[in-house]
């Protein structure tokens, strides 16, 4: 009859415990209402929109879906900008231009922290408003 040693039993239990641990990957969700009033300075556009942004902390990817209405023209660029509080401007940190309405990109741990801290905003640019026609601060989705 086989009798495992204490060392073998301990190793087997450790391996089983590790397999049973849940993954610590986290899916983070953020939203933003996009308006002309949120631009700095505000634009006279009647356009509106929304952005849904999701982060996979394990894969270090960010994905987005943006909807817009009544822009003065087609979007020529879109970005996630930051770090900045509402009413402040900052440079782009994630380029959404190749896939304005729906896409994905890589994201760093530092960027994830700034996003969680409410320091990023989505900005949609058009030919008439090259600095941004509508924008909205990203907030954790409820």
The count of DSSP E runs of length 2 or more, i.e. the number of strands, is 9
Number of helices: 2
Total domain units:
1
Shape: elongated
How many strands, which pairing sense, and closed or not: the largest β-sheet? 5 strands, antiparallel
Helix content: 10-25%
Strand order of the largest sheet: 6-3-2-1-9
Strand content: 35-45%
Mean pLDDT rating: 89
Protein name: CHRD domain-containing protein
Domain CHRD: 26-142
Keywords: Signal
Signal peptide: 1-25
Q: Can you summarize this structure?
A:
Helix content is 16%, strand content 39%.
Walkthrough of the structure:
The chain is α+β, with helices and mostly antiparallel strands and 142 residues long. It has one domain (27-140). Helices cover 16% and strands 39% of the residues. It contains two helices and nine strands, in the order αββββββαβββ. The chain has helices at residues 6-20, 109-116, and strands spanning 27-35, 48-56, 61-69, 75-81, 92-95, 102-106, 121-126, 134-137, 139-140. The mean pLDDT is 89.
């Amino acid at each position: 009859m086989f009798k495992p040693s204490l060392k073998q039993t301990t190793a087997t239990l450790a391996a089983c415990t590790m397999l049973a641990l849940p993954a610590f990957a986290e899916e983070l969700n953020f939203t933003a209402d996009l308006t002309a009033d949120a631009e700095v300075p505000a634009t006279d556009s009647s356009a509106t929109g929304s952005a849904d942004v999701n982060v996979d902390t394990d894969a270090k990817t960010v994905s987005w879906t943006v909807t817009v209405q009544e822009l003065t023209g087609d979007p020529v660029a879109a970005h996630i900008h930051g770090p900045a509080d509402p009413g402040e401007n900052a440079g782009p940190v994630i380029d959404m231009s190749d896939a304005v309405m729906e896409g994905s990109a890589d994201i760093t741990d530092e960027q994830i922290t700034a996003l969680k801290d409410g320091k990023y905003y989505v900005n949609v640019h058009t030919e008439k408003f090259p600095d941004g026609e509508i924008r909205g601060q990203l907030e954790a989705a409820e």
